[in-house]
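Recall that a protein's primary structure is simply its ordered list of amino acids. Everything else, from secondary elements to tertiary packing, is in principle encoded there. The following example makes that idea concrete.
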Amino acid sequence: MDNNSQEKISLSVLIKKIDWVEFVTFNWLKVGIFFWIPVHSIIFLLPNNFRVVAAAFSSIALGVILAYATKRNEIPSEEME
C-alpha cells in the first residue's frame, strides 16, 4: 500500500468518528445500569480476598460483551459502498 493514500490518525480525527449518541446511550447508560451496578453490588458482598479477582473477571466479561455488541452492529464494508 502507498503510505500517502492512508489517512493520518490523530486524536481529533478519532473523536470526530465517534457516534456520541450511541456511545453514551449504550456504553454509559445501558452498561452502567444493567451490568456494572448489579455486578459490583454482588462483588462488594464477597469477602475481601475475592473482590479483586471477581472485579477482574467482571472487567473481562464486560470486554467480551462490548466486543460482541460492536461486532454485531458492524456493517460489512461491501454494504457501505
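The CA atoms of residues 14 and 69 lie 20 Å apart. The chain has a mean pLDDT of 80.
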